Amino acid sequence: MIETEEIGRLARELSAKLELLRASGVDECLVQRRTLEEINIEVQACRSCFSSESGAEPLVESAAGSQEQLASIGVGTGTSGLFIVVERPFADEPGAETYAGEEGGLLKDIITKGLKLEPEEVYISFIVKCPDTEGKVEGKEVLASCLPYLLEEIELIRPKVLLCFGAPVAEVLHGPSVKSASPGSAFKNLGGTKVKSTYSLGELIREPSLKRAAWNDIKEVVTELKGR
Q: How many CB atoms lie within 10 A of CB 211?
């Protein structure tokens, strides 16, 4: 089983390699990169968190009992230069709206009212690609399976700013460092992309008093996107 520290180290090593490829131009002329659609097809069919010996079942089944996989990569165009990362998808049933539930609604308000952007201008993705794995697989196994897909998305979108909601999300990308994962901390670097961390959406809902500090983080992201 891979520890969170090991996942963080792997993320940093991969991001360093991506930065080297970008600087050399090798990724543009020699490396055949997959499209987001190709990645999503693989993710939707993913069963990496389960072993065949365990009689693996889909991570989520529809109400009709069909084996419909709800795992998916992110959504949006990222044309604003912003890539948002949350822990897992909000929707828990096929065909549900991307910003479903209370947390999804809060994030949509942050994007439209705080960042003054349209949801489709932002690329939003997830550390864990399935909406519900609780009690079925170990969290660290899920992270180890999903992290490569997230890093591939970041490389394809090439955002100006990566906004992480929740210290655990930032820790996966940077390792367990309080300074790099704390809300209110300075921007960090991941393969040439600036990373900003703030409170998780769940924390903001449970403790409204945290919203003022989160708003300061959002304002810094707005400034960075505008290039000031």
A: 17
Which of 110, 152, 98, 150 minimizes the C-alpha distance to 128?
Answer: 150
Q: What are phi and psi of 101, to 5 degrees?
A: 75, 180
Check: CB of residue 223 under 8 Å from CB of residue 186: no
The single residue listed with the structure tokens 């002329």 is 29
Distances (CA, A) of 162 to 26, 34, 69: 24, 21, 27
- Spatial distance between the Cα atoms of 217 and 213, rounded to a whole number of angstroms: 7
Question: CA–CA separation, 145 vs 79, rounded Å?
Answer: 27
Identify the domain containing residue 26 by its residue range. 4-226
If phi > 0 it is left, if psi is from -120 to 50 it is alpha, else beta; for residue 45 that is alpha
CATH number at residue 221: 3.40.470.10
Could you tell me what percent of the chain has a pLDDT over 90? 34
Residue whose C-alpha is closest to residue 122's, from 113, 133, 112: 112
Q: pLDDT tens, 103-121?
A: 999 999 999 999 999 999 9
Q: How many residues does the chain have?
A: 228
Domain total in the chain: 1
| Count of Cβ atoms closer than 10 Å to residue 96 Cβ | 15
pLDDT tens for each residue of 160-182: 999 999 877 877 776 655 455 56
The Cβ of residue 94 has, within 10 Å, a number of other Cβ atoms equal to: 13
Residues contacting residue 41 through CB under 8 Å, at least 6 positions apart? none
The answer to whether 160 and 195 are in contact (CB under 8 A) is: no
